[in-house]
């Protein structure tokens, strides 16, 4: 087991946003988290690499055993070294080129030497189909290209798991496909991923495990077929009816 996440609870302003959320992640899993807006999907993802602090919960991550509500800064740093986060709004530095955005996490974050970082960065950009855009600034790139830089930045650090937070929801419809294709390729290569998304076809085609959340709890989970073809719970059925 790569990650075993147990009993995550989180409140905002006294309101439960996550309650008793448990997720197991094996190496190579593509876990897709679905659910209506406000159901806690993003908060859960953010608790995993401490962009939010859970009020309760534990995480076993490889050899680390963590209390998510009381984690030392050195353990937080260790988890962040093993994870990469792909944001809905890309979170690129506007004043840095595509290549600089990708190499920064290597040179500043992981003390990789400059020439090695450049080689890794170019390779990562090649992989997401941006070999002709190394020196472009974010403003000179389409949203789909910016998000592919975001993905290149994630793969460059060779994380154990990549966390994707609605990676295509800020994109115009015609740009979504190029990002999903890159993600599908990573999945096929065995990259471990946890993906919050509303892209149902991606979930059906690529997920090894689908989790449906509503109201801060996991209502139902299973193989894509279990959720999409044989959903058991009314809330899952209603959600799918609305979205498909
Ligand atoms: P989802 O990703 O499923 O749309 P979120 O995790 O973004 O859901 O949000 C779950 C709930 O937590 C929502 O009611 C949202 O308004 C609330 N929430 C999220 N982040 C914050 C925050 N930083 N402060 C207060 N409330 C928040």
Automatic annotation (TrEMBL):
<keyword id="KW-0547">Nucleotide-binding</keyword>
<dbReference type="InterPro" id="IPR003593">
    <property type="entry name" value="AAA+_ATPase"/>
</dbReference>
<dbReference type="InterPro" id="IPR030679">
    <property type="entry name" value="ABC_ATPase_HisP-typ"/>
</dbReference>
<keyword id="KW-0067">ATP-binding</keyword>
<dbReference type="InterPro" id="IPR027417">
    <property type="entry name" value="P-loop_NTPase"/>
</dbReference>
<dbReference type="GO" id="GO:0015424">
    <property type="term" value="F:ABC-type amino acid transporter activity"/>
</dbReference>
<dbReference type="InterPro" id="IPR050086">
    <property type="entry name" value="MetN_ABC_transporter-like"/>
</dbReference>
<keyword id="KW-1003">Cell membrane</keyword>
<dbReference type="InterPro" id="IPR017871">
    <property type="entry name" value="ABC_transporter-like_CS"/>
</dbReference>
<keyword id="KW-0472">Membrane</keyword>
<dbReference type="GO" id="GO:0005524">
    <property type="term" value="F:ATP binding"/>
</dbReference>
<protein>
    <submittedName>
        <fullName>L-cystine transport system ATP-binding protein</fullName>
    </submittedName>
</protein>
<dbReference type="GO" id="GO:0005886">
    <property type="term" value="C:plasma membrane"/>
</dbReference>
<dbReference type="Pfam" id="PF00005">
    <property type="entry name" value="ABC_tran"/>
</dbReference>
<feature type="domain" description="ABC transporter">
    <location>
        <begin position="3"/>
        <end position="240"/>
    </location>
</feature>
<dbReference type="InterPro" id="IPR003439">
    <property type="entry name" value="ABC_transporter-like_ATP-bd"/>
</dbReference>
<dbReference type="GO" id="GO:0016887">
    <property type="term" value="F:ATP hydrolysis activity"/>
</dbReference>
<keyword id="KW-0813">Transport</keyword>
């Amino acid at each position: 087991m790569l990650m075993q996440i147990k009993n995550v609870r989180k409140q905002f302003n006294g309101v439960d946003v996550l309650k008793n959320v448990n997720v197991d992640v094996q190496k190579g899993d593509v876990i897709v988290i679905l659910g209506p807006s406000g159901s806690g999907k993003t908060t859960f993802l953010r608790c995993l690499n401490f962009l939010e602090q859970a009020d309760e919960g534990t995480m076993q991550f490889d050899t680390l055993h963590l209390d998510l509500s009381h984690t030392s800064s050195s353990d937080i740093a260790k988890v962040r070294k093993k994870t990469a986060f792909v944001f809905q709004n890309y979170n690129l530095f506007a004043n840095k080129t595509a290549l600089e955005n990708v190499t920064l996490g290597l040179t500043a974050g992981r003390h990789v030497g400059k020439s090695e970082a450049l080689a890794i960065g170019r390779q990562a950009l090649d992989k997401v189909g941006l070999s002709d855009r190394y020196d472009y600034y974010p403003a000179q790139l389409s949203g789909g290209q910016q998000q592919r830089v975001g993905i290149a930045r994630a793969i460059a650090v060779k994380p154990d798991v990549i966390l994707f937070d609605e990676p295509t929801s800020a994109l115009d419809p015609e740009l979504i496909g190029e990002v999903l294709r890159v993600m599908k390729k990573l999945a096929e290569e065995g990259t471990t991923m946890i993906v919050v998304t509303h892209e149902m076809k991606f979930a059906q085609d690529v997920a090894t495990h689908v989790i449906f959340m509503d109201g801060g709890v996991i209502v139902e989970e299973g193989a894509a077929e279990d959720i999409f073809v044989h959903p058991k719970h009314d809330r899952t059925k209603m959600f799918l009816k609305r979205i498909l």
